[in-house]
């Protein structure tokens, strides 16, 4: 439990986040919801997945990226799995691209719910990017050693990263997509 709390602290401490602005009070409330300004990228997913992780020694293993039929069956336009390794430690990665923001949201929430119902302990969640877009859920697995981050980008991609806490956090903080 101490490991999980320390891992959550270290993870959340290093994330660049802008403080939430205090909402202004309007004299006339609006019945119109704020529109979702996220747009889905139609770019092919695999070229967006780098073979190296910036600022780290993690590289895609020789097996490369492989199609992920489970994510496609769940509604992804295309999906891939692969493993980043520094030669000693591995981080399993799944990336899935969706045609709609709604599909992306549903899939990421499904992954987070499945982890929680499977015994993983949610350690934190929040915005990914400094402009408060994207979303992440950070879990410690039931074994108390492995961690998983479910990461929803702001353009239709959902990633999950699983491995030891330090490795997962290093890949998450430095992976460019």
TrEMBL record:
Superkingdom as given in the UniProt entry: Bacteria
Composition-biased stretches (Basic and acidic residues): 35-47
Compositional bias per record (Polar residues), positions renumbered to this chain: 18-33
UniProt-annotated stretches for the region Disordered: 17-47
Name of protein: Uncharacterized protein
Species this protein is from: Georgenia ruanii
């Amino acid at each position: 439990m101490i490991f999980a709390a320390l891992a959550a602290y270290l993870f959340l401490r290093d994330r660049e986040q802008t403080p939430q602005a205090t909402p202004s009070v309007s004299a006339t409330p609006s019945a119109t919801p704020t529109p979702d300004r996220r747009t889905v990228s139609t770019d092919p997913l695999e070229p967006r997945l780098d073979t190296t992780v910036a600022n780290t020694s993690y590289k895609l293993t020789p097996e490369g990226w492989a199609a992920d039929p489970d994510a496609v069956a769940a509604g992804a336009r295309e999906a891939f799995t692969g493993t980043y390794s520094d030669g000693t430690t591995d981080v399993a990665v799944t990336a899935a691209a969706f045609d709609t923001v709604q599909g992306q949201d549903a899939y990421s929430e499904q992954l987070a719910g499945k982890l929680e119902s499977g015994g993983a302990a949610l350690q934190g969640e929040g915005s990914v990017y400094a402009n408060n877009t994207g979303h992440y859920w950070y879990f410690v697995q039931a074994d108390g050693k492995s961690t998983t981050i479910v990461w929803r980008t702001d353009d239709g991609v959902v990633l999950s990263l699983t491995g030891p806490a330090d490795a997962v956090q290093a890949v998450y903080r430095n992976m460019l997509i």
